[in-house]
Every structure is written in C-alpha cells, then in structure tokens.
Fold these 3 entries.
Entry 1:
Amino acid sequence: MAVDLLLGLQWGDEGKGKIVDVLTKDYDIIARFQGGPNAGHTLEFDGIKHVLRTIPSGIFHDKAINVIGNGVVIDPVVFVKELEGLDKFNINYKKKLIISRKAHVILPTHRLLDAVSEASKGKAKIGSTLKGIGPTYMDKTGRNGIRIGDLELENWEEKYRALANKHEAMINFYNVDIQYDLNELENEFFEAVKILKELTFIDSEEYLYQAQQQGKTILAEGAQGSLLDVDFGTYPFVTSSNTTAAGACTGLGVAPNKIGEVFGIFKAYTTRVGSGPFPTELFDEVGDTMAKVGHEFGAVTGRARRCGWLDLVALKYACQVNGVTQLMMMKGDVLSGFKTLKVCTSYKYKGQEINHLPYNIEQENVEPIYTEFKGWSEDLTKMTSKDELPKEMLDYIKFIEDETGVSIKIVSVGPNRKQTITI
Ligand code: IMP
C-alpha cells in the first residue's frame, strides 16, 4: 500500500491535528516524520481539547499504531508530560506508540542554546518556540547528536556529558545573561529518560516497510507548515526541518514512489506566529476580528498569531512543492460576517506583476494584489453538508480550486471532529 501524507501548506497551525484525527479511522498506522515539541496539534472531541506535541494524532483511536519517525526530535521531559496527559484518558500508549531508534534527543542544553541564540539576535530573532529544535537538528547534521537508540547503550551518559559540556562552552560564548540550574534540569531529564525507555524503540523504516508489504494503511503526519520548511520556506524565519512532502521520505524512510495521496491543509485565511515576512498580513480591525473569532493564539507558546487574507500565490507554491492531490480548507466559519473577502492572486515584485513566490517576499519587495469576493453572513458551525453552505462560500471554494488546480475535499467549520463537511 502507498503511504498517504498530510501536510500544512501555510506557516503552521492550519488544523492538521483535527484532520489527522478525522482521517485516522481509515489508517492502521499514523507516523510523525519531522519537527518535535515546537508543534501543538489540537484535537477536540467529547467536549475535551487535547494538545499533542510529539505524539502522532492517531493516539486517541483504538486501532491505530502511532510511530515517531527518525526525522523527529524528542524532548524526554516534554514527552513524559504528554504521556501523563494521556494517562487521564486510559490510553494504552505502551502498546500503541513506538519510537524510531534514529530519532534525535533534545537535551536540556539544546533548549538553553536556543534561548541564548535567539537572545543574541536581538531584533532579527526568528521567534522560535525555544524548544531546542534548531540546536538539536544542528547537532544531527553536524553528526554530534544523541539518538533514541543511544539510550539503550551502556555508555550513553558519557556521550551525554561530553555533548552537554560542549554546549555549556557554547552558551558561555554567546555572552548572554541567562539564569539556569543545569543540575535541576538534568535531574528532570534523566528521570524522564527512564520513563521514555519503558516504551518500544524500533527500526522504524523496517517496520514501515514491512507494514507496507502487508498491505497496512499508513498516514504520515506533518508538523508546522510548508512555508516554514528549512529549504522552501521564508528562510531564515523557518524551522530546522523539511516540513514538505520530501521530509516524509527522509523522516520515515519511505521511498518517493511509495507516496500516495498528499492531503494539503490550509486555513481559509492566513496566520503566522513568530517573526518573518507575511505579505497579506492585516494590521486593522479585520485582522483583529480574524484573531478573535479564530482564537488565534499559539497552542505551544500562547503567543498571538498574526492574521491576514488568504495568499494564493503562496498556496499554489505549496501545492506545487508538495504535489498536493487533495485540499482541505479549515476555519471557513471564521470568515462569516465579512462583507468583502480578499484573496491575494499575484504580487507586485520589483515593479512587475508576478504570480510565483520569489526568493525574497519581504514587505519592501512584495506588494499583494487582491481579487475581491462577496462575503457571507451565515453561521456555518452547525452545517453538516455541502448543500447547506452559502453560495458565496462555494464561489470562494471554486476560485481556490481553479487557481490551484486541486479539489477541496473537506471544509472544516469548527474545532470539533463533527464540524467537518466532506465535499
Ligand atoms: P522553532 O522551530 O521552534 O525554532 O521555531 C521557528 C519558527 O517556526 C518560529 O517562527 C515559530 O513560531 C515557527 N513554528 C515552529 N513550530 C511551529 C508550529 O507548530 N506552528 C506554527 N509555527 C511554528
């Protein structure tokens, strides 16, 4: 069986967790392939809201096996807190959750390095979630990292010490005022590692290969969004992994010719948390309303998200880079009540009109050119079928489909599992 992918097409927070949760019933295995606790995948059902950070969003379904792939970075401390959150719901994660031995471990000093590195950047800071993501991937590509499989070795603590000492020297080099008690952080870390080691570690690429041979259905769950991809995103204001479709191949060991459907998730408007260019950002009442109605606050950091109109130039780019085969539009309900809706269909770039995403989309280089639509006023949150959707919304959907060349298969009209319309 082919492996299907689910990816965010904007700057993250598109609502991937909800869609994985909705789709999980169709899959035997859900596998995370990149990122780490910088993600916050929100799922809402039975009146309870759950936020998952490193654990795949299939964990609440009875059948699905959840795999954390080699491309993921894991902070044992955050991870154990996540497990504690699952205990309340009697989730048998020891049976349903397995971890790649090749995934890398976030050390307490990685988090500290993230903090001093950001602080030293001043105004140019990335707006990192400060979860140690960048420094851990740096150690991975620098071939210094500690992997989950290392935790099974007798001498892993020696390796840990050597790396932590090196990190301490680097922290001092930054010469930034930072207060920390490494002993305390390490005690917490080593306790968490003990609990983490009670889970099953596997050679996940082999596991997934065998699963494919046996005809099992697999969904690869992306984190963050395509515009935060380290290669194709708005560099340097990106995360440190490949969030695009290629990341699923390297982050799980799945061959490119074994990829099936690519589900692309996007919001009916755009948001971004942290720094970096955002051509369609709104600084007026309209943006404030989107933020308020859409509850646009980060699931991990609580930071307010920046809001703006849908950017079709960027969306088309994301569809292209990922080979999206089906689109899913989230938070359509948030746009109810705006008299006019705008969609950016091209950019004015260095005096010329272009409709691709150029190298540099900073405000001084790019001015969005908009197409306007008549809005709708109906409350969509109780609607359950396409026939109930207002004509104006169907026009909006049709326009996006025509521009991207990809059909929209799901329209989400609220955070609950049930508020999902299949088109
Ligand atoms: P980092 O990956 O924590 O270093 O953050 C790098 C950039 O990516 C920052 O602008 C973050 O706000 C953003 N970012 C990281 N993870 C997420 C996410 O899950 N959703 C949205 N933005 C994210």
Note: DSSP finds twelve helices and 20 strands in the chain.
Entry 2:
Amino acid sequence: MELETEMILHPFSVHLDPVSGIMDDADNHIERYLSKVADIFYDKNAADGMLKENGDRLVYEVYEKKIPQRSGELQFCSSITHPGKIGDEYFMTKGHFHVRRDRAEIYFGIRGSGMILMEKENGEHAEETLSPGSVVYVPGYFAHRSVNTGAEPFIFLAVYPGDSGHDYGAIEVNGFNRIVVLKNGRPEIIEKKNLG
Ligand code: S6P
Ligand code: ZN
C-alpha cells in the first residue's frame, strides 16, 4: 500500500507562454538543429546549401515535464516549430510512432498555423490543419509529424498517455510518404512518389 501512495504524484501547474511556447519549470528542453535533422527534408542539396550559406538553424524545440512513464499518467509538452523552408518544403518535426502503437495523442493549437501529417504502417494516412484554439486528435497506430506552414512559430500543446514512448526508428527507415511544400503561394501536400 505504501508503494502505491508513493506513486501518486502531487498536483502541480506550469505556465506555458503562448507567444514563445516556453514552458516554465520544464524538466527537459529539446532543440533540433538543421544540421541534426537535415535528412528528413527531401531536397538534400537545398539543406546542404542552407547550412553552408546561412549556418545552422533551430528547426524546432520541445519543452516537457518529467512524468513517470506508466499507464494512468499523462505526458505533456509544448512543441515549437520555427518558420522556414528547405527549398520549397516547410520546416517540420522528425515525427514518430508511439512505442505502444495504440496510444493516442491530443494537439491543442496555441500560435501560428501548421499541418499534422499522420500515417499508418499500412500506408493509410490523414492530414489535419492546426491553428490557435483548434484540437487535433491523433489516434493510435498513426505516426505523426507537424509542419509549420505559416510565417510565425507554430506552437501547440501535446498530451499523450504516460506509457506511450517514442519510436523514431520505424518512420526514419522509409520516412513519411507525403511532404508539405509551398506551391502557387499556398501549402500543398505532395506524394513523394510523384516527385521528379
Ligand atoms: C510527443 C508529441 C510532440 C512531439 C514534438 C516533436 O508525443 O508528438 O510533442 O514530440 O512535436 O516532434 P518529434 O517527432 O521530434 O518528437
Ligand atoms: Zn507522439
């Protein structure tokens, strides 16, 4: 019985700045620079060129609290994808499956606008736009990636089950089948297999 009591967290609150996306009292601040995530963009030459000409750039960052990774708890974090493009492809996150594939996730839009790409291992896919005040439900089994299609930081709150875990390896092998590019002045989803 004592063990169970020890496992109960004490209630707490944090402040998430809606302009910067910074979460006060975060336990972890992840920063993903272009030099480390260049491979996720389809135009490798454009990524190399940007690194050579402009130096490294912060593509996205995440602030998170350290919550026990067990069922019953909820993980939460703020995700900030900066505005920018590699060639005509918008800045985006690496994307991942959950280790426990059936674990779902909620995204609540705070600032900026973007697109959430979701793709199952069998190729089934879905795309949703996310903007301040809107909510995207990412069901289990879907890998998910966020793309900043606007001119300001794309910020959202993510909430997901405590024991979800992140699996980056599976999606890294083949990547997502679709990319989001600027075409005729607006974001367009293109199937990679249709690229020249
Ligand atoms: C976590 C949630 C988000 C992402 C964040 C960064 O389950 O989906 O907070 O971690 O958007 O993306 P990624 O793919 O590098 O974890
Ligand atoms: Zn996730």
Note: Residues 62, 77, 79, 93-96, 105, 144, 146, 158, 160, 166 surround D-sorbitol-6-phosphate (ligand 1) (CB under 6 Å).
Entry 3:
Amino acid sequence: MQKFIDSYDFTGKKAIVRVDFNVPLDENFKITDDTRIRRAVPTLKKVLAGGGSLIIMSHLGRPKKVDPKFSLSHIVDHVSECLGVPVQFAPDCQKADAQAAALKPGEVLLLENLRYYAEEEGKPRGLAEDATDEEKKAAKAAVKASQKEFVKKLASYADCYINDAFGTAHRAHGSTALIAEYFPEDKMFGYLMEGEIKAIDSVLKNAGHPFTAIIGGAKVSSKLAVLENMLEKVDNLIIGGGMGYTFIKAKGGSIGRSLCEDELIPQALEILAKAKEKGVNIYLSVQAVVADDFCAEANTKLVPAGEIPSDWEGMDAGPESLDLWGKVILSSKTILWNGPVGVFEIPTFAKGTLKIAELLAQATEAGAYTLVGGGDSVAAVTQMGYADKVSYVSTGGGAMLEALEGKVLPGIAAIQE
Ligand code: AMP
C-alpha cells in the first residue's frame, strides 16, 4: 500500500490533493497570511516535477451555501505564483469532469470551495429551528446518502489521492477521509502531513526521556483529555496559563479573580493524584504576575501564585515560575508545548510565554526534540520569531489537540487503513 509521495511514480498521473487553503482574506479578498499555501507547495511541486498533473481541492471559511465571499477564485493567482505555473479554476467542484480529463502533465486545476456543498462535511443544512428529531434524522440520512455521490465524483477526476491538509485531519469529511477508499493502492500523505505525523510520533511514540509537556492556555476543560493522555507519557508536566489556577485552587491556594473552573476542581485533584501514582512531576506556577484589571494599563505586581489578593488576577508566569520551569525544560530530551502561559496578546503579560519560546529554542539547540503544537502557542512562537528555532511547529490547532489526546485522526486513519 502506498503511503508517502516520495516513492510514488506520478508520470502521466492525475493527483487529486486535499490541501488546507483556508487562508485569511481582507475585505478586498487579498490574502493576509499565505503560510498554509506555502506549506503545501513542496507536495504540489513534487507531483508536477514527477510528471503528474494536479487537481487541488480545499475549503475556505464556513459557507453554508454558494457564497462568492468564500470563493477559492480569490486565491488562484497567488497559488499560481507560488507554484510558478498557470492555475486553471473549476467554478463548481462537482462539474469539473471535462477540465480534469483535459489536464496534461504539469498542469494544475483548482476546484471551487468544497464546502459550498453540505456533502463535504456530511451535515444537513437549512433545517428549520423547530425541526423535530425525526426531521433532523431524515435530513442527516439524506445528506449522508448524497455524500457518497459527491465523493465518488471527486475521486473520478484522478488516478491517485494525496492528503496534505493536517488542519482538517481530525474531520471525517468527504475530501479528508471518505475519498481515500477509492484509491486503495494509490492514497498517500503529502509532505506536510508526513511531517506532522512524524512530529506526533516523536512525542507520543518515540520520545526521548526526560519528556516534559508544557500545557497552558485558558481553560482546563479544553485540555483535560490532553492532560490525561500526557500523564501516560511524560516525566514532567508543567501546567501554566489561566488553566493553572484551577489546579492551584484545588491545592488550597488563593487565586483572587484569576480564571478558574470550579466545577473541574475534582478532576484537577484526580490528575494531581494520578500524577503522584505514576511518578510524574507536576510543576504549577509558583509566582504570578497579577493585575487589578484585564488590560494593558492595569496595575501589576508579583505575588506567590497561591497567595493572590482577592481583587487581583493572575495574568502571566512570574520570574520564579520561569526559573523553576526553565530548569525542567533545559534538562529534558523531549518537550511538547501547547498553550501560552499568560495573556500573551497583551505585551505586558507576554513575557512568560516569550520566555518559554526562548527556553524551547535553547533546549532545541542543546539537542532536545521540541514540538510546538496547537493554535495559540504556535501564534506565540511565530510572532516572537522562534518558529525556525524549534524542532517542529504544527499547522493544525484542533487536529494537533486531538492527536495529543491520543485520538486516531480520521484523515490519517483513512490513508493508513
Ligand atoms: P487556549 O486556546 O486554551 O490555548 O488558550 C489561549 C488563551 O489563553 C490565550 O488567549 C491567552 O490569553 C489565554 N490565557 C493564558 N493565560 C491566561 C491567564 N492567566 N488568564 C486569562 N487568560 C489566559
């Protein structure tokens, strides 16, 4: 079974490639950040250089019907520039038969937004708000039934299928998973997916020890499953950011007006107990930068993280926390970072997160494997110019989070099966 593109002979083959070209556009439909396009270019160029032709498919935004605002026609010229060849456009992804059939080696066709069709996601649209359960069930069955035809049509355009859209790998959509069954011997991961899979394996399957995970961000609730899975893998678990305060409170600390999910205190205690049982060292914040308001102009001071006065709020990790965490990070062989350790969008409270990025860069230089996985920590590390100083920066927020939870991603499973 074919899985990777390096060993595939594309000569004379038409490759249908699922990419994530869901790029941000401004009000004039100009691309404001083309990272996602650039990350897919090596895969696309590989097919062309190998003598194949390309049928590129993606979604853009969340249209609920045909909506020119979300048309991939806005990005045709830019894709063409990135690939260095003209790009044809198919204005309806379900009516591209003739254009696909006419493609010659080296030619490229970009299909219109897959999500103009409900069948891509396989979820019914336009249901009345007061629809009964029966009606909802019938609508779901109808879209699932027509999804088969939708996917079959896409598959009919090509000889082989490549998935290079890690950002949607956690979705069992038509183009990300279901289509793979039409290419049992000719389905494979693109370079971006391959990189992401190797990065995930480097921390979840082949980690060097000591292995440290730094989990931050706003809410325990969104990271509970990650924390639980990490307990099975790591030697050290640093819990920072807003979510850390639920743990500090669970241990009897005073956290003032800091973020807290009281209803999750029992789970936090369970995680702490489980860590003890498994010999995993947990490092919470020991010193916090607190503020008397959630804004850049607020008054700030440093206090012990478990002794925050009642009208103050923990906004960032203090230097003592960073010293403690730094020692752990710099003595680790594998480091995974997901989630900022402070309100990094406000520069006054970005110092802790910046320091973590710096420590990761230092650890990488000293030979550790470092993975930055997940939306906001990726934004932080990129914004701070450290993206090329760590081992791998993931492109998928939700997908990476689900992978770290230990889930099998449908987009990956569909190729591996
Ligand atoms: P997440 O999406 O769960 O990774 O959370 C990222 C968000 O967590 C960012 O918007 C941060 O501003 C926020 N955050 C991090 N630390 C804190 C904190 N101490 N208080 C409030 N929000 C925080």
Note: The chain has two domains: 2-189, 197-404.
